[in-house]
Design a protein that fits this description.
The protein has a single domain, classed as Rossmann fold (3-Layer(aba) Sandwich), CATH 3.40.50.720. The longest helix has 29 residues. The two termini are about 30 Å apart. It is of the alpha/beta class. The relative contact order is 0.14. The protein has a 7-stranded parallel beta sheet, with helices on both faces. Bound molecules: nicotinamide-adenine-dinucleotide. The site of nicotinamide-adenine-dinucleotide (NAD) has 29 residues, from helix 1, strand 2, helix 4 and helix 7.
């Protein structure tokens, strides 16, 4: 207990899935939270669960792929808590299809969803971190940054893979830019995780196709959201004070 005690953590996309699990884990370890999402009902459910266990939470509804809401999310942390210690850039997702069928707007949507919010939230948070000469930024990349066989074979995921590789590159540069300000920047790259939305799809794939996530993963199982949250917690804590510019794979082996 207390691995991030009293630290102020912003988590984007906290209404469900990995964002919810990460928020809950950080709260369990004493963080005060600023949570953002476009899903008001889901976000309030996450916040209520954390408050019921004594946690301190501020929520903000908004599309963080746009500059104004992204900046408002960051500034609400300053308004409520006067500091930002941890930023978890979790929002992401994909519209999959094979490249010859992929609508250009789906390509643009996927790139924007995974990259633009991460850029905008980091841009808004960094000046506050520089001021205090401390901060931890954790971005959600994906095992897909190196290509994902099951997606590639059955659906096509080039936009998603490209954007998650870009998140890795973004993080590598930011880690160098911000090192002199004592700010750690890292990624977590989950493999197939049993979240409510992705997990249902991945489990179905396990039953219906040869190259399923289970078969392609050395451990032979889907990961649990808590296993990703634990990796984020490590990178957010002082235990990772000398770790920066690293993508930590949480994908059941490689
Ligand atoms: N679940 C997996 O198997 C898996 C694997 C690898 C990487 N990831 C990555 O982890 C992150 C979380 O994945 P997940 O499975 O929990 O996703 P999810 O789709 O279940 O949850 C995403 C959350 O972000 C919110 N959101 C979406 N667009 C938003 C926007 N523009 N502004 C604010 N909030 C927005 C959604 O409402 C939702 O609550 C993503 O970056 C994803 O790419 C997930």
């Amino acid at each position: 207990m207390g691995r991030v005690k009293d630290q102020v953590a912003i988590v984007t996309g906290a209404a469900r899935g990995l964002g919810e699990a990460i928020s809950y884990r950080l709260a369990q370890e004493g963080a005060r939270l600023v949570l953002g999402d476009i899903d008001e009902t889901g976000l309030e459910a996450t916040a209520t669960k954390i408050r019921d266990e004594g946690g301190e939470v501020v929520t903000l509804i908004g599309d963080i792929t746009e500059e104004e809401p992204a900046s408002q999310l960051i500034e609400s942390a300053i308004a409520h808590f006067r500091q930002i210690d941890i930023l978890v850039n979790n929002v992401g997702g994909s519209r999959n299809s094979k490249i010859w069928e992929m609508p250009v707007e789906d390509w643009d949507h996927t790139i924007k969803l995974n990259l633009r919010g991460t850029f905008l939230c980091s841009k808004a948070a960094v000046p506050h971190m520089i001021q205090r000469k401390q901060g931890k930024i954790i971005c959600l990349s994906s095992g897909a940054r190196e290509g994902t066989p099951w997606t590639a074979y059955y659906e096509g995921g080039s936009a998603y893979s490209a954007s998650k590789a870009a998140i890795h590159g973004f993080m590598r540069d930011l880690a160098l830019e911000l090192a002199e300000h004592n700010i750690n920047v890292n990624c977590v790259a989950p493999g197939p995780i049993d979240t409510k939305i992705a997990g249902a799809k991945l489990r179905k794939l396990n039953e219906t196709v040869d190259f399923s996530p289970n078969r392609m993963t050395p451990f032979g199982r889907l990961g649990q959201p808590s296993e990703v949250a634990d990796a984020v917690l490590f990178l957010a804590s002082d235990e990772a004070s000398y770790v920066s510019g690293h993508t930590l794979a949480v994908m059941g082996g490689r």
